Amino acid sequence: LSLLQKIARMTVGDRIKLAMRGSREERMILIRDRSKLVCVAVLSSPKVNDSEMESFAAMKNVQESVLRAIAANRKNMKLSGVLRALVNNPKTPLDISLRLLRYLLLKDLQGVSINKNVNETIRKLALKMFRAKTEKKKE
Fold it and tell me: Across the chain, which distance is largest between two alpha carbons, in Å?
């Protein structure tokens, strides 16, 4: 049986255990699980590293609650890659993206302002913030 077939046959409890103890490949599959409990277990796993968290934040096929949970964790918000990935992800809720914009670097703001995948509101605000920050730099 393939890994996907094994995971599909597991109960929710078994998938939660696998999320905590499993390999990177298993966590990448489980983060997209329909059960919110399994997804949260993946995020709270001690084995998840920063690059993995960044890839979770960039995924467009995860639940909105997963993106909210990533944004709620203070440790994740200290990582610029996770911040950038969340703001550039079109599935990230608007309220979270708007809140995170102010923490982006100048180069990242410029990137968000030209990204056609993000919401129009976020793009316009990023462009406005980019212009304001560049004006401050000139003075």
Answer: 64
121 burial level (CB within 10 Å; 0-12, 13-18, 19+): exposed
Q: Around Cβ 47, how many Cβ atoms within 10 Å?
A: 13
pLDDT digit string, tens, across residues 113-128: 999 999 999 999 999 9
Q: What CA–CA distance (Å, rounded) separates 51 from 118? A: 22
Q: What is the pTM of this model?
A: 0.90
Query: Of the candidates 35, 5, 62, 2, which has an alpha carbon nearest to the alpha carbon of residue 17?
Result: 35
Using the structure block, give the residue that is written with the tokens 């399994």: 38
Query: How many CB atoms are located within 10 Å of the residue 9 CB?
Result: 9
C-alpha torsion sign, points 57, 59, 111, 116: negative
Sign of the Cα pseudo-torsion (112, 126, 106, 98, in order): negative
